[in-house]
Amino acid sequence: MAAMHRRARALFVPLMLVGLLGTSCTKDGKGGSTPPDSGAKADTKSGGVHHEDHVHGELANSSVVSDMHAQPAPNTAGLLKSTHAKTNSYDDSASATVLVTTRWGHGSGVIVDPKGLVLTNYHVVESGETEDFGIEVGITTAKINKDGSADPDLKLRARALEIDPKRDLALLQIIDPGKALPAAPLAAADRPRAGHEVSAIGNAGVGFGWAVKHCHINAIGTMESAAMSIFQAEADALPPELREKMAVAVRKAALEAGTQIQTDCSVLPGDSGGPLIDEQTHELVGLNAAIRTSTSGSKSLGSVSFHVHIKEIRDFLDKASRKTGHFVPDPWELAGHQADIHDTNKDGEVDSLRVGGSCGSQHMMCHGIFVDMDQDSFREVSKLPPLQEIYEKRSFDPEWAMFARARYPRGGQVGDHLGPLTDMLLYFDTDNDGAFDGLLVRDSEAKEIRGYRIADGVAKRDKGLDGVEDPRHLFKAAEDRERVV
């Protein structure tokens, strides 16, 4: 047992040093990614199968397409009266359009139920995360005056019920709205077509606040081409056969982002989450989501806007919970799309999977490592599956995983610190059944360690785990306690 303990410690230390103190991905010194090598060769000394020291590659997870989502505008929204003339769509929908604020930015939203349900973009509310992985934001409703001007009206709070980072959607519930609120009707049919007249409404935080942009639908489709252009810069450094596999995976990730509407609306970052209204029916047919500008040198050639399609919105709302949510990060989606798989102690069996890169719509850096302490993920496998396949099937079987996760402070600026903070998240599988059942969070802002138990994908606070520095006693099997150091 002592020998096993010494072996475990020898494995753990280099993993921590390389996986968390170093960079998350090996580069070739010239900015290119080191190509993966999934070959294997026999190891006659150990009697097992010796895999190469590591396999490096790209993972087509949600961070690949996160660049498609717009950034929330700074939280400096101008809430002056509007002098925009009335329009039919504005008359019907502006009063249902709200300002959504966090300490770190703002965007727009649209009331879709008089009881206070608000639809917006996930990237608008992402920085409103609370201590226990909830999301809480400020809501300001609009008062539309007889002359068509707009004033800020009610100042309320709302909590997130459901989020969908891939489709960039979030559903909020206003806390105690006090009265029935004006709501925008959702289109019952997938009516948007190229050429249709639409209006985008939002509070961009510039000019007179709530404003309408009249425009036309240019096209309808998915973000495959945009995602491929983002991926192409790094894809050129990969071998041709891997490049094609990654192209297929990136297309899949783009499709998961859902159908989008492209328009010539001149939306701005703060308009994100506001409604796209059909001019004929005055129904909501989309949600403002992103803008993309074409440039030549330093000259802008114009921009187009993207909106979440109504069919994605209806599907999201149909499946969304109506209870306040707590959104514990999925470790498999947490830390970017670059990865390495290793046989760290070179005993012939794979034992670690490292991931890293930008995370979330704020594109901050996150790093993580999964550790298979009993090394049973690919025992005696002569050739490892492709890295993307391992990721998609989650066929790597870790007993614990540790992540350094960057985020903006919940309480605004911390002293003289203006940038993001980094929390440490430790997931563990105490009964070795292939599913994480616990989580420890070292909160760099609160200066504490909080504990959670995970069941059926839902994490609940367990104060009995608060302050735990050494999780070994949590593992049921003696051999697992010896492996975790």
Which structural traits does this protein have?
485 residues, alpha+beta, nine-stranded antiparallel sheet, 17% helix, 34% strand
What would your notes on this structure say?
The chain contains eight helices and 23 strands. By secondary structure, the protein is α+β, with helices and mostly antiparallel strands. It has two domains: 216 residues, no CATH class; 219 residues, Beta Barrel (Thrombin, subunit H). The strands form four sheets. It has a nine-stranded antiparallel sheet, with helices on one face. A hairpin with a 6-residue loop joins strand 1 and strand 2. The two termini are 14 Å apart. The N terminus is likely disordered.
Shape, principal axes of CA atoms: globular
Largest sheet: 9 strands, antiparallel
Proportion of residues in β-strands: 25-35%
Q: What is the terminal-to-terminal distance?
A: 14 Å
Helix/strand layout:
Layout: H1 2-21, E1 40-42, E2 49-51, E3 54-58, H2 88-93, E4 97-102, E5 105-113, E6 117-120, H3 122-125, E7 136-144, E8 150-164, E9 169-174, E10 197-203, E11 210-221, H4 224-235, H5 240-256, E12 260-263, E13 275-278, E14 284-296, E15 299-309, H6 310-319, E16 338-342, E17 352-359, E18 364-371, H7 387-393, E19 400-407, E20 421-428, E21 438-443, E22 448-455, E23 458-461, H8 478-483
Antiparallel strand pairs: 1-2, 3-16, 4-5, 4-7, 5-6, 6-9, 7-8, 8-9, 10-11, 10-13, 11-12, 12-15, 13-14, 14-15, 16-17, 17-18, 18-19, 19-20, 20-21, 21-22, 22-23
Helix pairs in contact: 4-5
